[in-house]
Write a structure and sequence with these properties.
Blueprint (H helix, E strand, L loop, with lengths): L4 E5 L5 H10 L1 H4 L9 H10 L6 E7 L7 E9 L5 E8 L8 H16 L4 E6 L4 H9 L3 E12 L2 E11 L3
Bound molecules: coenzyme A (COA).
Coenzyme A binds next to helix 2, strand 4, helix 4, strand 5 and helix 5.
InterPro entries: Acyl_CoA_acyltransferase (IPR016181), GNAT_dom (IPR000182), N-acetyltransferase (IPR051531)
Protein name: GNAT family N-acetyltransferase
Keywords: Acyltransferase, Transferase
Length: 168
């Protein structure tokens, strides 16, 4: 729980609102992320979150309870790595109000304090200024660049590799 938002697991009963907001936010999301666009895609999305290799969450403003955005911790690897990869996106009309900065910060704390991870990573396209700013604001450092790294909407896209490690 943060001062303005709470972070909770995404649930089956979020489907209708999640799909509505994802559709309304497509202009904001493209070409950076692709969220579920149908009931079938939403069910497959939920099924990914086994709480072992991936945790799916939503960011909810404390006043109102709507969904301001989503944050996932994906590709969790244990053993010598102890790391996860963040995915996040704001939903219109809640973008630009500071909710995602707080929500992603809560997800990082959850990854470190509750999941016991040592490292969280974020893969960000070079032109994605809002996401680069968010990562910098939260103290992520740029560690590298991977050409044609992730296929989004049918195209292999270059990504900068950002990360934050738990030094406590
Ligand atoms: C990246 C993304 C999640 C950022 O979401 P957002 O809702 O704009 O994030 P925030 O509102 O927390 O921060 C945006 C700005 O609002 C500011 N802000 C406005 N009101 C604020 C408030 N009350 N409190 C704190 N900050 C506030 C922040 O300081 C920040 O300013 P800056 O970027 O000019 O430095 C969003 O742009 C998005 O969904 N992009 C498409 C999907 C995407 O790219 N995902 C990441 C893939 S790597």
């Amino acid at each position: 729980m943060g001062t303005r938002v709470l972070l909770r697991r995404v649930r089956a009963d979020d489907e209708a609102r999640f799909l509505e907001l994802a559709e309304a936010s497509e202009g904001l999301h493209r070409p950076w992320v692709r969220l579920p666009r149908s009931a079938g895609e939403f069910a497959a999305y939920l099924a990914r979150f086994d709480q072992v290799t991936a945790v799916g969450m939503v960011v909810c403003p404390r006043d109102g309870g709507d969904l301001a955005g989503m944050v996932n911790i994906n590709e969790i690897v244990r053993g010598s790595y102890q790391r996860g990869v963040l995915g996040y996106a704001a939903f219109l009309p809640h973008a630009g109000r500071g909710y995602m900065t707080e929500g992603v910060a809560l997800a990082v704390r959850y990854a470190f304090d509750q999941l016991g991870l040592h490292r969280v990573e974020a893969d960000i396209q070079p032109g994605n200024v809002e996401s680069l700013r968010l990562a910098e604001r939260l103290g992520f450092r740029r560690e590298g660049f991977s050409p044609a790294y992730i296929k989004i909407d049918g195209t292999w896209r270059d990504h900068e590799r950002w990360a934050l490690t738990n030094e406590s």
